[in-house]
Amino acid sequence: MMYSDMDVFGIIAGASNIRSGDNPTYTSEDFFRIYPQFKKEDEKTHLPIVPEVVVNAYLKLAHASIKEARYHDAWEICMGLFIAHFLTLYLQSIADPADSIGQIVNAGLAKGMVASKSAGDLSVSYDFSAVNGADFNGWGTYKETVYGRQFITLVKIYSLGGMVVW
Q1: What is the pLDDT of residue 19?
Q2: Are 26 and 66 in contact (CB under 8 A)?
Q3: What parts of the chain have a pLDDT lower than 50?
Q4: What is the DSSP annotation of the chain?
Q5: Using one digit for the tens of pLDDT, what is the confidence trace for 8-27?
């Protein structure tokens, strides 16, 4: 039996478990309707806590990474979780340009869950086991936020199936 090039490509595309295509419109306003906390303004400067340029950068990354053809009805929530995850990491890394080099570096360090605190001579212990759980091995920073963990869960559900290349 002879297959045309289009038939072969269709078979390979179906077997590969790779989804492509254009996404519906999803804007920063769509995101802020679900996660209004990221639109909050700084009380002193009255500027958004997350600059518009940062929100738009992660919005573009989400459009390039999260395809409606794969996630169907869960696509919008996947877009939101993806963006919220990266904006959370962004907010964790913010430092004032006037801070010392040490403070700026510290702002960019990975944070674990607070395991214990002390008041006298200030002491804080962090537990990294929660973010390094075996359920999320290989998922990089996605395991570090609640948004990323929810995203991983949905990706695992919707990405079931193998990838085969002939």
Answers
A1: 63
A2: no
A3: 8, 15-16, 162-166
A4: ----HHHHHHHHHHHHT----PPPP--HHHHHHH-GGGGPBPTTT-SBSS-HHHHHHHHHHHHHH--HHHHGGGHHHHHHHHHHHHHHHHHHT---TTS-HHHHHHHTS---EEEEEETTTTEEEEE-TTTT-GGGTT-GGGGGSHHHHHHHHHHHHHT-S-----
A5: 455 555 544 566 678 889 99
